[in-house]
Amino acid sequence: MTKKAFWNLHVPGCSEHYLVHKLRRDAAYLPLLSRVAESNGQVVGAIYYARAFVQNGDERTEVLTFGPLAVEPSFQKQGVGSQLLETTMDLARQAGWKAILIYGEPEYYPKHGFITCDHFGITTPDGKNFPAFQGIELVSDGLKGISGQFHEPDVYSHLPQWEVDQYDRLFPYLEKRKLPGQWTT
């Protein structure tokens, strides 16, 4: 389902299905917050949470991150992703988490209250901000007094292409295609 949700979306092919495989075995993974959506016994969506942190000098503040949030293509634009996100944000709030920071679709997440991280004084590890780098306070002033650099678990960035390609062989073949609107590298 995750492979189909992201295939040829941002780049030719995708690596999100391999990320899920690795994340579920990573110490940062939070299975109690992660959720799968089903319809008639078929998995139609999923969201995967992990521990992350904001570092400012010696001060380290733990926050949540998630990804991927995936929805089966035939179920997209029907509220599945929104339900997964809203349900898990409530669970995170109840569990005492104060904020979520993500790299996500700039057109989608603001509908759920996310704003760019420059509003919080938080940057990427290399000091940058851009529209896809977003956050949300789960409680009032959840990021008050917190600034610095956001660090997600290494599993999100350590996805060597040869490993992705090898893992991808376990799934039905899909053609990698360069399409208009994909990210440039």
Automatic annotation (TrEMBL):
SUPFAM superfamilies the UniProt entry points to: Acyl-CoA N-acyltransferases (Nat)
Domain of life (superkingdom): Bacteria
MF annotations from Gene Ontology: acyltransferase activity, transferring groups other than amino-acyl groups
Domain N-acetyltransferase residue range list: 1-137
Pfam families: Acetyltransf_7
Keywords per UniProt: Transferase
UniProt protein name: GNAT family N-acetyltransferase
Biological source species: Caproicibacterium lactatifermentans
